Amino acid sequence: MTKPIDFYFDFSSPYAYLMARDLTHLAQRQGRDLVWRPILLGAIFKQTGRTPPIDGSARGAYLRHDIERTARRKGLRLNWPAEFPFSSVTAARAFYWLNQSSPKRAQHLAAALMDAIWIEGRALNDPDVLNEVARRLDVDVEAMNQAVQDPDIKALLKQEMDHAMSQQVFGSPWVVVDGEPFWGNDRLDDIQHWLQTGGF
Amino acid sequence: MTKPIDFYFDFSSPYAYLMARDLTHLAQRQGRDLVWRPILLGAIFKQTGRTPPIDGSARGAYLRHDIERTARRKGLRLNWPAEFPFSSVTAARAFYWLNQSSPKRAQHLAAALMDAIWIEGRALNDPDVLNEVARRLDVDVEAMNQAVQDPDIKALLKQEMDHAMSQQVFGSPWVVVDGEPFWGNDRLDDIQHWLQTGGF
């Protein structure tokens, strides 16, 4: 029972931000590694013919309301980023580049990026934001900026996306515990119960 | 704080079945009336350009799995109905017809229909099923079968649908507590917290 837990997420997914802290703590309490796996929901939506959930419809308005309400209940700050939705491809590439040398530092970068986006409300479309967050964590910003244009890193992200799609991941956040998939921040309690009881 | 709680649902929604028991008990414990409001999700999907969630895609397969898993966790029996998806328009009309004379009996009919569909796995497309369930509850089946073809009852359902859409209801189950909307069985804990604390 020491298999790592997979945490698939898109940086542009507010529910992933709402889940990350509690999922991290839950994995720690259960003695499990948490493998952060940034994905690009847009590419998955394109493949599956779906559309982003938070749009201009009544459904989009409800989801925004639900996200803000969930943040309040969890005691998490939330400020919508200056641009939303936004492309998370550069951040995902930066993550997988750093992940090659240190998964731990890549996780720290991902968590700091989530905070910049969802607490500070920064626009991830602005390359300065990624650079600033990376610099705070003593990441080599010049090397990072070269890496996000490197065909090998692009291929690495594509490989991760192919893996995610082969696992039928179609939403964010998406958590896999011992082969069992859970979609959504609202499955956190189910994940805890599953970890504690070994399944139900 | 004694305003009734609105419970919008489609008889063909398994998550509504999964929520009905716990929501009923929660409302009772909080001293609130629960107003059952059957709706037709198909008509809402048509209007909003969306498609039924439980389809042949990977998402549909995940949702079926999640529904069965949620039933196990809640200790609820679940058998997929012989035909799925199915039309719930006749059941909704029967409900609103009975609701005119007795909301309580209409709720009993709704709950018994949910059990017939989701525990016994009966096909609601089969008119015998509605008749059989109604008969068990001493409902006048002949009057009911006339009512579901009555233009006044059809208009009553349409009026309820217009009301639901004016309230931005776009999913099932959908619960409104003191003007606050909650979509999905997985918002039950939020609803309980909201009722106990007066909002968050």
In words, what does this structure look like?
- The structure is a homodimer of 200-residue chains.
- With 200 residues, the first copy, chain A, is of the alpha+beta class.
- Chain A has a single domain (5-197), classed as Glutaredoxin, CATH 3.40.30.10.
- The first copy, chain A, has helices at residues 14-29, 41-48, 58-74, 89-101, 103-118, 127-136, 141-147, 151-166, 188-197; strands at residues 5-9, 34-38, 174-177, 180-183.
- In chain A, strands 2-1-3-4 form a four-stranded mixed sheet.
- In chain A, strand 1 (5-9), helix 1 and strand 2 (34-38) form a beta-alpha-beta unit.
- In chain A, helix 4 (89-101) packs across helix 8.
- Chain A is globular, with a radius of gyration of 16 Å.
- Chain A starts with a strand and ends with a helix.
- The mean pLDDT of chain A is 96.
- Chain A binds chain B through residues 48, 50, 57-59, 61-62, 65-66, 69-70, 72-73, 168, 170-171, 181, 183-184, 186-187, 189-190, 193, 200, and chain B through 48, 50, 57-59, 61-62, 65-66, 69-70, 72-73, 168, 170-171, 181, 183-184, 186-187, 189-190, 193, 200.
The total strand number of chain A stands at: 4
Can you identify the CATH superfamily of chain A? Glutaredoxin
- Strand sequence of the main sheet of chain A, in spatial order? 2-1-3-4
| Rg of chain A computed from alpha carbons, rounded to a whole number of angstroms | 16 Å
Beta content of chain A: 5-15%
Largest interface comes to: A-B, 25 and 25 residues
The arrangement of helices and strands of chain A along the chain is EHEHHHHHHHEEH
Tell me the quaternary state.
Answer: homodimer
Q: Would you identify the regions of chain A where 5 or more consecutive residues have pLDDT less than 50?
A: none
